[in-house]
Design brief:
Blueprint (H helix, E strand, L loop, with lengths): L6 E6 L6 H12 L2 E4 H14 L7 H10 L2 E5 L5 E5 L2 E2 L1 H4 L2 H10 L3 H12 L6 E6 L2 H5 L5 E6 L2 H14 L6 H17 L12 E4 L5 H14 L4
Parallel strand pairs: 1-6, 1-7, 2-6, 7-8
Antiparallel strand pairs: 3-4, 4-5
Helix pairs in contact: 1-10, 2-5, 3-6, 5-9, 8-9
The protein binds 2'-deoxycytidine-5'-monophosphate (DC).
2'-deoxycytidine-5'-monophosphate binds next to helix 2, helix 5 and helix 9.
Length: about 230
């Protein structure tokens, strides 16, 4: 296979492990593009709902996936907004309900297959930071650096809780913890592209680390590998 000169750094891990914060900081620091692949699965779940497509109907969900056109625009504060069919649906797709629906459709092989090329099309100069579950194992196996973030379940649930509360979603911490547990179980145990670290991934346990500390740890690796 011909080597792609555009370099990719992948960041995989379960929800609340700090992938979003790390990809944001890294993409700003390196001035590279960013792919939030979870947002694509979330937009697809949104599209299923607005088209009355049953989340269990793999053929129909895969059909929608093949035609899915979501647009990601960077706002002035650097935040990435998700535009779908002319509407900014960023806040709607961030709800925990959307994460749950996204995880359900993400377990379907035909759906994943339909979205791979779309995710690979984000690989543009000068480079790409790709955040998700299977970025290093399936979508960008030739990435120059693969990070796998982990953290204790209770810490991840608290982080998601604070994020959702910050966005005005009122959730119970205990319920959220249960939902995250189920979502992770589904993501880890699915047959295709399960959430597992790539063999050559650098695993970082972020349980006792701040977002800045994780970022600094990754920057050490970036400079050790002479990526910039
Ligand atoms: O990262 P996130 O919470 O936005 O992702 C939502 C769901 O989408 C997650 O529970 C599993 C699925 N997903 C996936 O299967 N593969 C990816 N590369 C990204 C997300």
């Amino acid at each position: 296979m011909k080597e792609d000169p555009i370099r990719v750094i992948t960041i995989d891990g379960p929800s609340g492990s700090g992938k979003g914060a790390l990809s944001f900081l890294l993409s700003q620091w390196m001035s590279w593009n960013v792919l939030d692949s979870g947002a694509i699965y979330r937009v697809l779940a949104y599209s299923c709902r607005s088209n009355n497509v049953d989340l269990l109907n793999e053929n129909r969900v895969a059909e929608l996936a093949r035609d899915l056109k979501a647009d990601f625009q960077t706002a002035e504060n650097g935040e990435i907004r998700t535009i779908f069919q002319g509407f900014d649906i960023s806040d709607i797709i961030r709800r925990e309900e959307s994460g749950k629906a996204a995880s359900k459709i993400a377990s379907m092989p035909r759906v994943r297959e339909a979205l791979v090329l779309q995710q690979q099309s984000f690989r543009k100069a000068p480079g790409l930071i790709a955040d998700g579950r299977d970025m290093g194992t399936v979508v960008f196996p030739d990435a120059i650096l693969k990070i796998f973030l982990s953290a204790d379940e209770s810490v991840r649930a608290s982080r998601r809780y604070l994020q959702l509360m910050g966005k005005g979603e009122s959730v119970s911490l205990a319920r959220l913890r249960g939902e995250i547990e189920l979502r992770d179980k589904r993501d880890i145990s699915r047959k295709v592209s399960p959430l597992v670290p790539a063999e050559d991934a650098l695993i970082i346990d972020s349980t006792n680390l701040s977002a800045t500390e994780v970022f600094e740890r990754v920057l050490d690796e970036v400079s050790r590998l002479k990526i910039t």
